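Shipment paperwork, digital attachment
Item: protein structure file
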Amino acid sequence: MAYRWESEDSVWLEQENGQFQLAESNGLGHTEWPAQARSRLPDVASLLGAALPQTCEHGSIYPEDFQFCPECGAALRHPAAAADAPEWWGATSAPLPDSSCPLPKHAPHGLPLTALPLAVALESRPPEPHVGQAERRLPAPPNAVCVFAAASFGFRGQRLLALAYTRNVLQYWDPLARHWQVMAAEDYESDLRFTASDYAWLPLDAAAGRRGDVALVPAAQGLFRLRINPVGESYRTEALFLARLASAPGAVGKHIACLFADDDGVHLWAADADGANPEALSVAGGAAPSGGWSRPVSYDGSLIWLHEQGHLVWRPGAEPQWLAWPFPWTPRLILGGPVRSRDGRLWLIGHDGQGYSFRELGLAQAQVEVIDGARLGFGTLLFRRGHQVKDEPWAIEDVEDQRHSDALVLPLLENLSSTRSQPTGLVLRFEKFTGKAEAALESAALPRTLIEWIGQRNVILDEVVRLSRPGDCLPFVYDDCLWLHHPTWNEIRGWQLKALA
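Attachment content:
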């Protein structure tokens, strides 16, 4: 018969052979240890603050408040307290906690922007033309088309999740065993698959919520709260809104919203940030599409969803408005996303059959600015060919080096800083490419691509040979590193960030 031990956060069972097994833990409920749990005891101890043996072999793990082995009295060791690390959620429209360097209010939320102090650390490396190399590597998750989140999720150390949203697979990185663990659904009906539109999630506040809370996630059946149990290697979902979703959710102010479809067409579902006071709103301006939407962008008190046929704008307290693009103008969403002019307006690049132009977002009678060629980027990080555009989005590019005229630059991540007057961020530079920008982004293989940091001084972090579909590259920050993932790579490349330590 097992002996029951209770600590502040957990309940442990001591077996007759002296081995301890976790039975319950705060926020996780009853826990069934899977067969492979023994190989993950260092990770479990780190998550819970449990004790591990140092010199004896009487037990493999002990409750959190044990200091000595109950058999021989040998001292036990506790995992070192993990330093607070900023969270990473990618291009989410939800605000981040103060400890994670949230974006300033004037910046669009939902684009690949970060306010983490990346520049100082990355620019400490030798400047171009020196070509650096990745300093750290992680094995790519088995299901490589995914989004990443790095947070503590209410536990004692930060962990990395990779959600393969096209295959209904949630993957957990065990940093001590250095392998990806596929989490099992506690309910066989749980389905995290979402392919109707571009993916985005809204992080749940672990400090105000429960241990294991991850995010509000879209799925084919509706919106769900996602919770993980890394000890039991499992996850579960709790339904917030059941419907056939047409878009990923967005957050604006104290509200959340998403588009859904039924027999009567597409509508907007909105609620308070905690899901209270839900309402379904009809869309004005015509029939909106039932799929194919971009990630929502939250800006100036409104949510904006982009589509090849038009865009939908919603401000809390008003009806959502569908604004179709005027013929023959069509957007070029593959070139980036909304860009911001100096007066604070958002614009989107497109083509009318004769040439490229920027169209103001959010208005039926929008202003249009004609430009002389494709420009790649989002926010304020924008390039024409190999040169940065540092003034208005339609202004002449800033030519600092003529050697870059036969290159093409694709921004991946803009780094916002109150101490910098010029846009800074991570880009891909395609050397010796003189074709159309759209062709490069859809190319089967680009001969040579430089992974480059653009800032007060430019740094080439690494180079890639024969890169295909460069727009699939996904940067994220975890474990004091900037990482870059591509679904076709076997490893994720990383660069140390001493400024975050």
